[in-house]
Amino acid sequence: MTIQFNDETFRDDYSFHNSDWAIKRFPFPFHEDSYMYAVNMEQHRGGPEGSVYEKRFDVDEHYVSEMRDRAMVLADDPLRCQSLGHMTLAGWDLLELIMVSKSEDYPDLFELHRDGNTWRWINKPLGIDDTFTFLDETTLPYGPMEYITRQAQGDFCLLDQRDGNLWMDAGMVTTQADWSLDFDIGMNFFEWHAPVPLAHEMGIFQRALKFLLNIQQGAPARRLNWTMTVNPLLDTSPENYHKWGIQKTTLTPDNIGAKQHLRVELQTFFRLPRSNGLVFPIRCYLCSFQDLMTMPKWGRRLHRVVRDLPDELATYKGFIDNRPMILDYLSQFDDGKPTSPGVWPDAETEPPLAR
Amino acid sequence: MSKFEFPPSIRSRPVYGTLEARPGKGHLMIADGEGAEAILAIATPELMAHAHIIYIPRGSDFTERLRALTPAQFYEGPSYAASVQRIRRVLQGAHMGLQVYLAGTEGLMGQAQNEAMQAGIPHTAIQTEHRGSVARRMQCVHCKGITEDVETDPFVCSHCGLNLFVRDHYSRRLAAYQGVCIDAEDPGNIPEPKGIYE
């Protein structure tokens, strides 16, 4: 299908919105009526047609507006995109991976023409037509990682692999769930995850690292993570927390359905061929509570998950203060009926809400 | 003696040990304040014959005792900032087999470790021992300014003036802990500052 790109904002007047198509394909992250940390890795080898899992790098109706928002964040704070000196080759690996994937997966939107090291890249939605020399930085307006990730939705972490660990040595991070690339750059896998509660004690990170170190070329993996955000704000950075934190206090029983958003990260992991690094794209999807509630199964399930979530996790995810109001709202959409297994909305087969 | 037992913390927070003399062709020892005591504890004539001590007294008076060890080179600096060019030059000329010993405050050890890492020495090969003040070097995540010697939580950023709480999350690259606005969700509600470990 041809994607109709929204003209919308993720700040100020927050005109962001999801079409019916976007709601239906929203990556709802709960496969059962409760949640606890898990490594929950699976192969990233496509998925049902039209789902966010189908393509290697999903492009959706928010693409053009998200890239505009990223450019604004970078203009305000260039430190959101950094690459340590030894990571340039991994940046070229990433540029190649994205250009090849997008031109193959969305031939109507992106074209890549390669003649030896002379490459021509056409990005129709953003109106870009550039010819450059592969592996020659002087022929691009930015470094290779910055160039291509200004044209790709989601944050990107480039990880160096050495000493049996992964090192966060480069990244483009403008749509993050409250962590700072500028602070974490250069850290290893355990260090950048240090502030996460409970999961270290559960051995989650040791198992996840073992898995990631062994990811092979051509066999990417994926998992989902989630949090909550008041207003469809992409840039929930610690850098700007003193500006956006106050928005959490603007929830009322009347506006919560429109203002409170479930924020889901589709995290994927690809081995990079020349650098042997990993790229870790973190793609953020937002959906308002009122849009989620159009799927009866999701309404029932979200209420049960939020209700039973340990306090540590509600605190870490930043909504502990608002949880009572959130539960008041969500409980209206939980009639106690059972839910079908799995993440899909099953809109045709799940019973409508009994009032 | 002035050793402080830091409470257990998260994985990014540095853990300090106790200096021990290790075989090496040269010994670079960088200390501030009461960190001098950690050097005095391991000094032997053999070690000192190949030692370069860089010491920043910060109001303490161990200088004469260190000098009396007769290290191959001794330098007393008025501040870390004044000493850092010298530290860089020494590291630039370092050969394989140099042992690096850091002792004193977290700020001193973190910054000197960072210089050694940039000179190609893995941080795991650098010995550290905490002595003296438990104050922290803090980076404001909002304005990026560094405030040295922070003793209380919360504290006021010396650059932008925001009230920041003291996290245990630590960056070796910045040699600093992270400070985050404490009253973002409730402006003006700032708890009474307490000592970081109180």
From TrEMBL, chain A:
InterPro entries: HODM_asu-like
A Pfam family recorded for this sequence: HODM_asu-like
The species this protein was found in: Poseidonocella sedimentorum
Protein name: DUF3445 domain-containing protein
UniProtKB/TrEMBL annotation, chain B:
Keyword Oxidoreductase: yes
InterPro entries for this protein: DmmA-like_C (IPR048037), DmmA-like_N (IPR054582)
Signal peptide boundaries: none
Domain of life of the native organism: Bacteria
Residue ranges the record marks as coiled coil: none
Keywords assigned: 2Fe-2S, Flavoprotein, Iron, Iron-sulfur, Metal-binding, Oxidoreductase
Pfam families per UniProt: DmmA-like_C, DmmA-like_N
Domain Dimethylamine monooxygenase subunit DmmA-like N-terminal: start-end pairs: 9-126
GO molecular function: 2 iron, 2 sulfur cluster binding; metal ion binding; oxidoreductase activity
Boundaries of every Dimethylamine monooxygenase subunit DmmA-like C-terminal domain copy: 137-180
Protein name: Uncharacterized protein
Record lineage: Bacteria, Pseudomonadati, Pseudomonadota, Alphaproteobacteria, Rhodobacterales
